[in-house]
Amino acid sequence: MPRSSGRRLTVAVLTAAALAVTTAACSSGGGTTTGAAGTGTYTIWDPYPQFDAASPWAKLLDSCGSQAGVTVKRTTFDTSDLTNKALLAAQQNNAPDVLVVDNPVVSTLAEAGALTSTDVNKIDTSAAAPNLLAGGQTGGRTYGTPIGANTLALYYNKDVLTAAGVDISSVKDWASLTAALAKVKAVGRKGITFSAIGTEEGSFQFLPWFWGSGAELTKLNSPEAASALSLWTGWLKSGYAPNSVLQNTQTTSWQEFATGQYAFAENGTWQLANAKKAGFAYGVIPVPASNGGTAAAPTGGEFVTVPVQAKTDRYSVSQKIVTCLTSADSSFTTDQTLSYIAPTEAVQSKQVAADAELKSWVDAVKAAKGRTSDNLGTKYPKISEPLWGAVQAALSGSKSPQDALSAAQSAVR
Questions:
Q1: 381: closest CA among 203, 226, 140?
Q2: Angle between helical axes of 328-338 and 345-354 (0-180°, round to 10)
Q3: Is 220's pLDDT higher than 80?
Q4: Which end of the chain has the smaller Cβ count within 10 Å, N or C?
């Protein structure tokens, strides 16, 4: 439950929690002003500094403000900086009217008492996919609505697989994927690259395999979790994945795949434009679960939220702005611009109709889940850091997968 509007924020603690979860998924603000509801200026903060005033996104904000009968004042921040600014603004009772924020941070801001729930702001979230909406839920309440989602899947190089005699349709689970990697290595090509760096990016990339094993974040040292980490360590020992994964970010991992030497790369929706410029034929499949099917991958992407205001009559206009920003027509344009998959089935269908290559990503997003889902909320950062430490320890060979995960579980306790 969030604190009351007369909240006291422990900014240092909350900022540390927020910073731990804002760097994994790519996505690439102001204070309130005087004036009666329905007139004057309404402030919006967003994490898209790459989009200037002439961009479709900025024009959409202006249009939604005009439709609500107000002027929009937009301020942009880097994702991590936005979280810090939002916490400080809440402490100073100077929050923006509308805040677009990375989805794992929603629970941090909500539990700090900085955001209004949909019970208060009256935002209709009924069309949003439940698995995506869960990223903005804590304590039984919903705080905002997703603007779109990105996630992880496996890109593959068609030429490399053809040379190795691998039919991509045969890759359905961990055993068949590992068999494909063995064939690729046998013909002198490279297997799979990913990011296992000791940051949130490492946890983010490990989660599809962790969840795909049937493991849960509340029990890091389960046999299922150990099987997922053993999969990765086995790939390194067999030479199917390079040792560089220990230092790879998602960007450097992609750069390895872009050389054309690798059969597979785990990466996100945000690399689609780069994939089309890679110079070789590629495809995408969802990350397979251990025994088949699609593994749940973590969601990236932002929520549109309404921060707590001293003048509560402003919420009605903020609600109109948010509704406009997340309408079906706006969602299609915005998600195409951001390389996101829309949060509603209707717009997802429209995206696939416009670009059939997005079908694999829609399937991956439908199976995805928020890192703070399962009512973890602000507990997630306390779990993620020991988890990425365990991945590093196992892949470097300093600990066995089981011992590394047992140490991580002890750290969480």
A1: 203
A2: 50
A3: yes
A4: C
